[in-house]
Amino acid sequence: MNNMLIIGQYVPGSSFIHRLDPRTKITIIFFFVFFIFFANSLLSYGILTLFSVGSALATRIKVSYIIKGLTPVWFLILFTFLLHLLVTKDGEVLFRVFTYPIYTGAIIQGTAISLRFFLLILVTSLLTLTTSPIEITDAIENLLHPLKKIKFPVHELALMMSISLRFIPTLLQETEKISKAQASRGVDFKTGPIKERIQAVVPLLVPLFISAFKRAEELAMAMEARGYQGGEGRTKLRELKVGPLDWVALLCFILIIVALFVTRK
Amino acid sequence: MDISFKNVSYVYQYNTPFEHRAIEDLSFSVKSGSFVAIIGHTGSGKSTIIQHLNGLIRPTSGSISIGNFNLSASDKPKNLKELRSKVGIVFQYPEHQLFEETVAKDIGFGPKNFGIGDNEIMERIQQACTAVQLPNDLLERSPFDLSGGQMRRVAIAGVLAVNPELLVLDEPTAGLDPRGQQDMMDMFYQLHKQKKLTTILVTHSMEDALKYADHVIILNKGKKYMEGTPTEVFANKDALSKVQLDVPEVIQFLHEFKERFEGEITYSNQSIKQLASELTNQLKGLTNNE
Ligand SMILES: Nc1ncnc2c1ncn2[C@@H]1O[C@H](COP(=O)(O)OP(=O)(O)O)[C@@H](O)[C@H]1O
Ligand SMILES: [Mg+2]
């Protein structure tokens, strides 16, 4: 259970990727997600893979940890691949599983789509692995700032995000604590008939909700007591700054994208 | 229930960058029927030790035996439920685990899970309420309408209603008023004697450890720092102050008395009255000598 809780969790560090401005990272990832759909040749996939894996290594986070963090997605990737094997009917029949024909096109497409999927997840998880939730929210607030003109509640949205992010670990901790306490009173979350296991969730959820509401109330009170009245006129403790490192990263990324288009079929 | 820990270590989030060694190479044993106090600063691994006693976590290395049950990294007892019915844990802030509509139902929740019959449950609810001094007219109220202290009592009653042989208390009096703390500790001690329980108390209070425990274990940063009878452990004031722990006031007092008047009184569970008369005798002796 503990291992499941840490997927994509921020791992503090001082690598080149860690030190990038969060806005740079978000921008690059945004365009990466967009441009990945343009890859269509072996070489173009190779370039994107190189970029993603290279970035992952550059974070200096243990590879085994990143891979383990992707555990739940492996299944989806495999599933995508198998689905393609079964439904795509391009190219020649490569071989037959019993009597079911598997086409060359299916293998190629399946691999391509799974690879895309894998790269997408890998690159996005690099964001959360190397950027603290606070930085991410700050960056999003900053990037969405222009929307304020059309009365979009950017600050409120960012606040909601940062509060949720802040309390996710707290809630997880609480869940673990309460489920242990109830397990100790004889609740069995892991075995037994489905119906009983569903019922076993009640003793977990009720205390969890109660504590979440209590926390929310306390937080609201504490914020008000410290004079919080919305985003108007509020200054920032952490100013975001784009440095030379960011320009280098952006330039590299642009080169990668150019290379991508050159190597396309 | 006899308990023994042999070279137990526990690492949270093992094999991740967040790896955290909470207890390290810890060995101790607890004799059936004894009252053991575990003392240590916040984060010294007390709660981690306790979770092992119910098989909620298993040691990363080393082995533990609790009565007939054995736990180790590779060894998972199949009958965890039986273990949990024999070992009752009152967790830190146990009122956070309340969830039922009524106090009675919440107290009866544990016994029900362990397959106790309805009539017997009713009886146990009554007994548990008496034990924690919870007025009967609260039984049909919602536990969420009660005061903090009452909620704590309900939660404790819920653990007692299972009739455990080993009672584990994780800072059971934290956050109560001084009077409530005293009452609650007296109640646990009475239960301990009456039902011949084995009791493990996690506490920050040296006074409680001195007053109730037969055996004290001092933890420091996940390791056992000292162990012995309360008088043995607290006699070693210097070692304790090295890890920023105090000795109980009585012992502190006798210490200062000795320095001031060079009178020698060793503490061996005397009552305040006895101590007072010993002190007067010594002081009289001093004045007579002059
Ligand atoms: N679920 C957990 N995940 C990671 N670390 C934990 C967890 N629970 C406790 N710890 C860490 O283990 C150490 C010991 O904690 P704990 O046993 O709760 O100490 P105590 O009860 O003595 O205050 C602490 O440093 C704490 O931060
Ligand atoms: Mg604790």
Structure report:
The complex is a heterodimer of chains A (265) and B (290). Chain A has 265 residues and is mostly helical. Chain A contains eleven helices and two strands. Chain A has helices spanning 16-19, 22-35, 42-58, 63-69, 71-87, 104-130, 133-143, 154-184, 194-199, 202-225, 244-263, and strands at residues 93-97, 100-103. The two termini of chain A are 45 Å apart. Mean pLDDT of chain A is 88; it is low at 1-6. Chain B is an alpha/beta fold and 290 residues long. Chain B has helices at 46-52, 80-86, 103-113, 118-132, 148-160, 178-194, 206-212, 230-235, 237-242, 249-261, 272-289; strands spanning 3-12, 20-30, 35-39, 61-66, 69-72, 87-90, 166-170, 198-203, 215-220, 223-228. In chain B, the strands form two sheets. Chain B has a six-stranded mixed sheet, with helices on both faces. Chain B has a four-stranded antiparallel sheet with strand order 2-1-4-5, with helices on one face. In chain B, strand 1 (3-12) and strand 2 form a beta hairpin. In chain B, helix 3 (103-113) crosses helix 4 and helix 3 (103-113) packs parallel to helix 5 (148-160). The longest helix of chain B has 18 residues, at 272-289. The model of chain B has no long low-confidence stretch (mean pLDDT 91). The interface between A and B is medium-sized, with 28 and 30 residues. The structure holds adenosine-5'-diphosphate (ADP) and magnesium ion (MG). Residues 46-47, 92, 170 of chain B line the site of magnesium ion.
